[in-house]
Automatic annotation (TrEMBL):
One of its GO terms (molecular function) is RNA binding. Pfam families: PORR. InterPro entries: PORR_domain (IPR021099), PORR_fam (IPR045040). This is Protein ROOT PRIMORDIUM defective. Residues 36-375 form the PORR domain. It comes from the Eukaryota. It comes from Sesamum alatum.
Amino acid sequence: MATQIFNKVRPAGAGAAAVLRRTKTTSAQYVDSRFRDPTFEKLMEKYKHLLKVISIQDLILASNSTPPSVSLDFLHRLSQRLHLNRGPAAFLRKYPHIFHIFNHPVKLQPFCTLTPAALKIVREESMSVENSLPLALTRLIKLLSMSLSKKLPLRAIFKVWRELGLPDNFEDSVISSNSDIFLLQDGNEPNTHFLVLNDSEDFKDCLIPAVENWRVVECCKEDCSVDRTDLKYSFKQGFPPGMRLKKNFKAKVKEWQRLPYVGPYEELGVEEMRRTKSRMMRMEKRAVGIVHEFLSLTVEKMVEVEKISHFRKWFGIDLNVRDLFLDHPGLFYLSTKGKRHTVFLREAYERGCLIEPNPVYEARRKLLDLVLLGCRGLERGDDKSNSVDQSE
C-alpha cells in the first residue's frame, strides 16, 4: 500500500476514535474512514443516475432500427448489469425528458427511444468531440508517453475513450489516420493488440505536465501561497472544508512538497531503480504526478479507479492507486457513490463544476440537467403519453 504522507488527520469535532492511522486499518476501512467532502458527494449522487442513463442511451444508439430503439424486454434481461433495481420501465419513466416509451406497431411490445431533446444533446456532444480531435490526439500522445515502454494495451484505452474525449471510432479517425505517430502491434495472446507511440521529435514540445502551468502562474503572483523555492516540485493543495489539519500534518505536507521526483514524461535514471527509502518516497511522488496528469488529460477531470488501474503496470506504479488517492486528500477526492470508486482532481472543480469547462463537458452537463429535471416541466398529458401498461 502507498506510503501515507501523514500519520494523523482529525476532522473538526471528531474524537480520538476518528483519528486516521494508516498502518492500523485495512484498505476497506481506510476508504470508509476518509473525510467526506459534501460538494463532491452531492455531485456524485447526481452522476450515479447519469451513468445509468448513459448506459441505456448507448444501447439505444447502438441499435440498427430507425429511429434507434430497444425493447423493454431486452432492457429487463440486462437489469442486474445496469443496476435497475425496480426494472427498466420504472427507471425510464423517471426521465421522460430523455426516454420515450411506445408500443411497437409491428412487434406489439413496449419499446424505448430517445426524445428529441436527448438526441439534440447526443449530436451536440458528437460535434464537440469531432471539433476537438486535435486535442484528443494530443491527449492520446501524452497518455502513451507516460508509459515506460511507450505502448499501452488497446483494451485499456477502450476503457477510457469517453473520458479522453475520443470519438467512438477512434481506431479509424485517430489511430489509422495518424500512422506516422501510432502503430498497432499484435500481442502474444489471441485478440490482444497494443498501441505503440512512434519515436518522433514532432510532439516533444507538448509533453509538459499540467501542474507546470499552475507552477508558472503561481510563481508570477505577488501573493504566492507557496514558497517560490519549493514550487519546482509542488502541487496545488486544497483540503475539504471542515478538515482540521494538525501542525504535524502541515509540516509533513510541506516536506513532501519539497521532495524532488521524476516527472511523468521523464525517463527514469539508474538512481531511481535502487531499493532505498528515499527512492521509494520519490517513486511514490512520481506516481502522484502520473495520476495527476492522467486526470488532467480527461475531459471531466474524473475517472473510475478501476479504469485507471489498468494502466498501473505500464506507468511503472507499484502502489495501490486507490490508496494513493486517499493518501493525498489535498489533490484528489475519492467517492464511493453508485457502487463504484470515482476519483476527482480537486483543483479542477469549484462548487461542483469545472473551473475551465470545455465543449464536450458542457454537452454532457446538459444531459445531467435533463436527469435532474426528472418529471418536472411536463404537461400531465405528456406524462401519460410516455407510459405503457405495467403488465406489458
